[in-house]
Amino acid sequence: MKGSLKSILLLGLFLLLSFFPFLFPDPYLIHLLILSFIFSVLVSNWNILFGYMGIFCFGQQAFFGIGAYSSALLALKLGVPVPLSIVFGGFVASLSSILIGLPTLRLQGAYVALVTLAFAEVMRMTCSNWVGMTRGQLGLTVTALIPGAGRVGYYYVAFLLLLLSTIVLLKVMRSSFGYVTVAIRESQEAADSLGINVIKYKISAFLLSSFMSGLAGALYAHYIRILTPDIMSLHLMITILVMGMLGGIGTLPGPILGTFVLTFLSEYLRDFAQFRFIIYGTLIILAVLFVPGGLVSGLRSVETKLKGKRCQEGSS
Amino acid sequence: MPILQGKGLTKAFGGVEAVSNLDFSIQERAIVGLIGPNGAGKTTLFNLVAGAFRPQSGRIRFLGEEIQGLKPFEICHRGIGRTFQIVKPFNTLTVLENAVIGARFGKSSKIFDSFDPTPIALDALEFVGLIKEKDLLCDNLNMGEKKRVELARVLATAPKVVLLDEVMAGLNPVETDRVMSLIQKMRDEKEITVFMIEHVMKAVMGISDQVFVMHHGEKIAEGLPEMVVKDQAVIEAYLGERII
Description:
The complex is a heterodimer. Chain A is an all-alpha fold. Chain A has a domain at 30-233. Helices cover 78% and strands 1% of the residues of chain A. Chain A contains 14 helices and 2 strands, in the order ααααααβααααβαααα. By secondary structure, chain B is of the alpha/beta class. Chain B has 2 domains: 1-79 and 159-244, Rossmann fold (3-Layer(aba) Sandwich), CATH 3.40.50.300; 89-157, no CATH class. Chain B is built from 9 helices and 10 strands. Chain B has helices at residues 42-50, 72-78, 95-105, 118-128, 143-156, 173-190, 201-207, 225-228, 232-239, and strands at 4-13, 16-26, 31-35, 57-62, 65-66, 80-82, 161-165, 193-197, 210-215, 218-223. In chain B, the strands form 2 sheets. In chain B, strands 6-7-8-3-9-10 form a 6-stranded mixed sheet, sandwiched between helices. A 4-stranded antiparallel sheet of chain B has the order 2-1-4-5, covered by helices on one side. In chain B, helix 3 crosses helix 4 (118-128). At the A-B interface, helix 8, helix 9 and helix 10 of A face helix 2 and helix 3 of B.
């Protein structure tokens, strides 16, 4: 009964999002949804590393930025068709994750955070100073996805990307890979002693997570069409962190929920733009204090409470 | 021929030799106890055998093949399972999922594999008597149950030898008896060789066929349990030298 209610709600949401641009042709709302889709992909895939595997990756913005720059440059300099260059952007991000994944394999906890953060900063500085290639802080003017593509076109591509990413994550996390990620988070030693090749699984998680993040970054670049090294700034990482923590890390719907809430919230808080990070910080603190599992766990506990009440009413 | 054998094993941390030029050999289907005062190097020896540490020198042979220097997961695939002194269950997974991990990865770490590990996992839970608790999260179990989850997980990897690091520590007498008979059943029904570190003397004396005693990284005695506890060197290691 409960399961069917949930699937009806999900189906409704899916249909609503599928026809949204026709039902509500408001360009501003569509824009916010496109951003939500793209960042949902980014945060969900960061969540594989941080939430499921317990790898303190604070360099996800680098994968996003590397995907963005590779795709933008390919399309711009070599004239590669954009859909192809986006996929290529994903692969370059994936390759770069080996670079960052390997040195972190033998590290634990905070050290992983430091190394990944440093990696992202190095990437940002490289893009910033390699003016001949990236035009540095002046920024690149990025090719459109398809010449003349409108907002609605981007909407559907971004929506598809989120669907793709969610389906892949569902499949992966419900397979034995999902168990492994949790096992590694809970105790790497125990996982190792039970026959799990921890290094192989960590690298695979890095490859998948960075590939998807790279795709998201590339799509973002071709949508916003202006690309500066700021895409890899620490601000983005903090935003990812807030979105994830707010929604609930270590769950599949959490990062998506958190991303949507925060994207819309921050747009409506635009008047307080200079206080944005103060608000973010407060949100993290509040989330950690009152709903440590994020909004998803909050919703779940409300759900169980409601169910409890219903049972009581039924019995009395 | 012994199933598991170590020769000249040495492992030092800084200047301290936790295991020092140690030899041991374990016969197939034996239950062998490993005792010794705290800091004697017992757990270090287990970590050497299980691949968590690499010995600085010496060789370990398992079923006739040298295994020193292999990674823990490779040692598991070969057929040596272990439990931990401080239990390390996967707390946010259910009891069954814990056992499934052992069954799924015990013999291969492939990412894509079509076989269904659940029946093996259920068998292992049945064996340790946790079938009713299979859908509980490990977090909600008591110490005795957590220890049995670790046993089930190891059994699901289908080991030939298990290294048990103080499985009975912290258990009440009823649970201790239960685990003791479980260990005997593992040997009798599953033909598993058991190598166990144990401080609970009732268990050591009750079920081991042979006992090794370690002190300062060296083996100071070995033999039948009742012989070993009368050994002068052993008594000195535990209680100090007699002064009168």
